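Example with several molecule types.
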Amino acid sequence: MNKLGELAKRIGQLLLVLFLVTLFVAFLMRLLPADTVDIMLPGQPEEFKAIIRHELGLDKGFFGYYFQWLNSFVHGDFGSFYFAGGSETVASHLGNALPKSLLLMLYSQIVALAVSIPLGLSSAYRAGSKFDRAVSGTLFTFSSIPSFAIGLILALVVGVKLGWVEPLGYVPMSEGLAEHFKHMVLPVASLSFGLVAAYTRLLRSDVIATLKEDYVTMAASKGLSDRRILWRHVFRPSSITLMTSAALNMGGLIGGAVVIENIFSIQGVGFEIIYALGTRQYVALQSLIALVAVGYVLFNVIVDIASGFIDPRTRERRGLR
Amino acid sequence: MNDSSTEISKKSDAERLQIRKERIALLRRNKAFTIGITVLGFWTLCAIFGKYVTPFKSDEQNFEFVSISPNGTYWFGTDANGQDVFSRVIVGSRLILVMSFAATILGTLAGTSLGLITGYFKGWFDIIVMRLLEAISSIPAIIIALLAVAAIDGQSPTITVFIIAFVFTPNIARTVRAAVLAEAEFEYVAAAKLRTERTPHILFKEILPNVMPPIIVEFTVRLGYAIFAIATLSFLGAGVEYGSPNWGTQISENWAQIFNNQWWPTAFPAIAIATLAVSVNLISDGLLEVFEI
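Resulting structure tokens for the full complex:
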């Protein structure tokens, strides 16, 4: 398929996803036994509730409400959290939450790649050795433990028993880099474990396959050092597969971040989602979920197109799966 | 029908039996698989008989012995409600095992049916279904589950099972569809069509047995994810009744205590989840090796 067609297909898919996801959320809201506004604003005067109901379009039937919300959403109005005293816009909450979540995920990806690349390369180079088996076994165990359990164990051992780092809360970079990173160590570590396992395994099998290629034998016969062959000739083609996989793992990472943010009280997007769920702020929830879905799909489209440009083989390989 | 076709099917049945025998023998010798099955078997026994053998009742509260560290009487200590952690860990295996198996079986049934139909018929039905499934799987699974669990009914295990099955369906459908697409090219399918066999017969009697290996592997992989999902949901306080003996719930009720250095009510259920998840992954690894996919 040509690139323009691919792009059009992906954008169409993006729109369909957005539509279905938000329709699903709106539908779930309607399944609730009680009225949405009654749940969001318990104990408020009826007149006030009526105003809110009208404002949200809840008096216009299911599709009336849905399309009003969709229209606001695409125009950048994500609705509000409602309280007894008034309301706060979702956008203002996001302004605080999004940077925290993005940093958390960015750090986790960087740490995961930084650990798994040398690990994957060296265990592939010594495939079948004791070292290789030890790495595989350890990673296998870690990838089998849910990230919240890893987070709690780390919080207990490193945060409480050893007291090396701060287990709770978030400190912005502006209040000191050292403090910022001290608070990020545990959440980032908890999120990275699963990723390291996935990336190392992928890179290992990819590199083992590449090492059998003729051009590697050729490079070795020219007398190039093993190190040079590994990094320059073997790692390069594998790196694209790794990047694609890193992008595909974003979905899992977002899900993991929801849990980790709640354990380590980082008020990121995941924290906001759980908060909206717990306080039954369905309008805000609908917008937040839609934003996560859009962000995720958009990110994948970009990576897909980028990796397709860099190495057409990736696209073919992924198409085959 | 005619002799030659029955002869072919008989021969293939014998071959199939032979392959199955060889695979079982290989599995028995596979270390990963054996360890996995043993651990899973242990938790299954706990789930069935745990209630009758624990030293204390899982919901028995003894306020004289609150937050006691592990000792001879309370092997895993007691939690802040004076409940025996060991008994709760043993009994807690029941809910997570029943729920994860139920969700995975449902998801596999739905996904396999969809995969068989879309892979066999192709055409517009295939296109529409695959787009819909892509849409579902483009949202992080845990978020769909949380959303649905919270919106419909906060603490119903039955609904949680259906939701996890729903979230898993796309992945299984995709795996099965890919296998069916390859399988439908073979001559035995064309032969069955020529014999004017009915479509359900071709799908379930001819194609399905040949795509079983990827389905079985996918089932064990999904089972691992189901354990993750249920543990995570119950940790977040959704999906199961609060206070029930269940590993995720136990962790969610007690984890704040680890900052007071009371690690035992959290650590033991966490280890239990880990061993269960590892055992299921070992099984799927073993199967993968034997099936050589």
